[in-house]
Design brief:
By secondary structure, this protein is an alpha/beta fold. The protein has 17 helices and twelve strands. It binds pyridoxal-5'-phosphate (PLP).
Length: 473
């Protein structure tokens, strides 16, 4: 603190109080723009108009589940009884909030088939980290200290190996087979080679290719026979809600992305919620406090001797929990239909586009699918250029260049929120683009041309991001 302010003596003033606080007071007035409320409103409106969001156009960003976020979620979250509640208030003061968290846990137990849930983690990646800490603690508690390896498929989200690594595990990659699932032969080889050194496998099912691993029961059998655990990355839960659940697939521990599956706005990195669910034998390791009900009142239980400890300040992102709770209550049995429709929409687009773009895994997909831009690349147009071209047609581009095992990948996830007209419009634009690649590949140098900022230098923006406003002194 001190050193930062010491650099610029002009920021110092006479001490307000004795001690370091003096370093925080400036001596000259801050040169802020002098504006009316109306001008400020116009400024922020203009900034928001520059943004793209799901309310403005189709947003098929694969793996991100950019579904519609019902406004009623926001309305409920902004109830002043929630807004004015402080997390340090007593259990007695907080019965309503605790009840919501407790009930949300019960709902997520039903949806995932797990025996206990923590709502604390604040993102999917944070849930992964928490889950792998639990895996570590479980083996430590069993005095099974050899299990230091985690198996991860080659199409996994990058956060998976990181979450394992940050908990001290070494990662072993298992390849996908021609149908896009885990290569069983290779998995067996890995198990034969490393045996009781393997703590867990981290899987996403359906995986990031949008494909359901049909060998999942065989995989869970192999892993359990080896004394290892199965971890489920639940970011793709929108494909299977109400149809199956990770418990039925044989998983022991899962994380969910409430901000994806259960409709919370999550562009730009937050806030999110990444609850973790576990089977009975892992229950004692969940973070403290757990939310419990003694038949009369709800309370926070800190008395958990085997817990991995706290993973968030307070109890996580409460407002995200309320949004997910509202959404689940509102949807009830229709959650199953949401998954059905998400899968139907993805398959509809896939079938219409596979004549125009390479489809590396030509089988029924789940809620998303991956195309390859290889054919277009051969004609001089990259997937990145196709993505930029889509922006001119008021479509957010799909996720590109991921998963890494598909060249020129385009990962398309329409979600259940869109009408057939919207899907048809996207299909037509994609077909038009494929034709433009044939007739006029050079034109792709010019996109996007209709966005507020046309061609950004992405490397510069990523490495030297500058969002500072320069005051005229
Ligand atoms: C989004 C995602 C994550 C990470 O979730 P965050 O909330 O962004 O941290 C992990 N795995 C998969 C498959 C995802 O799609």
């Amino acid at each position: 603190m001190k050193t930062i302010f010491e650099k610029d003596k002009s920021l110092h003033s006479k001490p307000l109080f004795k001690g370091e606080i003096e370093f925080n007071k400036r001596t000259s007035p801050l040169n802020l723009p002098d504006m009316s409320e109306l001008e400020v409103m116009r400024h922020f409106k203009e900034l928001s108009d520059r943004n793209f969001c799901v309310e403005k156009g189709f947003y098929p960003l694969g793996s991100c589940t950019m579904k519609y976020n019902p406004r009623v979620n926001e309305q409920v979250t902004r109830d002043e009884n929630f807004l004015n509640l402080h997390p340090l208030q007593s259990d007695t003061d907080s019965q309503g909030a605790l009840e919501i968290m407790y009930d949300l846990e019960q709902m997520l137990k039903i949806i995932t088939g797990m025996d206990a849930i923590t709502l604390q983690p604040c993102a999917g990646a944070h849930g992964e980290f928490c889950a792998m800490s639990i895996v570590k603690k479980y083996f430590l508690q069993k005095n099974d200290l050899k299990r230091k390896k985690v198996i991860i498929p080659d199409n996994a989200h990058g956060t998976n190996p990181m979450s394992a690594k940050m908990n001290g595990f070494d990662c072993i990659e298992v390849k996908s087979d021609v149908s896009g699932g885990v290569d069983i032969k290779e998995l067996e080889n890995i198990i034969n080679t490393y045996g009781d050194e393997i703590a867990a496998i981290m899987m996403t099912n359906p995986n990031t290719l949008g494909l359901y691993d049909e060998n999942i029961l065989k995989i869970s059998d192999l892993m359990h026979k080896n004394g290892s655990l199965l971890y489920y990355d639940g970011a793709n839960l929108n494909a299977v809600m109400g149809h199956t659940n990770p418990r039925l697939m044989g998983f022991d521990i899962v994380h969910l992305n409430l901000h994806k599956t259960f409709s919370t706005p999550h562009g730009g990195g937050g806030p999110g919620a990444g609850p973790v669910g576990v089977v009975e034998k892992l229950k004692d390791y969940l973070p403290t406090p757990t939310i419990e009900f003694d038949g009369e009142k709800y309370f926070r239980n800190y008395n958990k001797p085997y817990s991995i400890g706290k993973v968030s300040t307070y109890y996580g992102n409460f407002s995200v929990l309320v949004k997910a709770y509202t959404y689940i209550l509102m949807m009830a049995k229709d959650l199953k239909n949401a998954s059905t429709d998400a899968v139907l929409c993805a398959n509809y687009i896939k079938e219409k586009l596979k004549k125009y773009y390479k489809l590396p895994y030509n089988r029924a997909c789940m809620h998303e699918f991956v195309l390859s831009g290889d054919l277009q690349k051969e004609k001089g147009v990259s997937t990145l250029q196709i993505a930029k071209r889509l922006m001119d047609s008021n479509c957010h581009p799909p996720t590109v260049y991921f998963p890494l095992i598909v060249h020129e990948a385009m990962m398309i996830e329409p979600t259940e929120s869109e009408s057939k007209e919207v899907l048809d419009n996207f299909i037509n634009i994609m077909i038009e683009i494929a034709k433009e690649v044939d007739s006029d590949p050079e034109s792709f140098e010019n996109y996007p041309s209709k966005t507020p900022v046309s061609k950004a230098d992405e490397t510069l923006a990523a490495r030297h991001l500058n969002v500072k406003y320069e005051f005229n002194n």
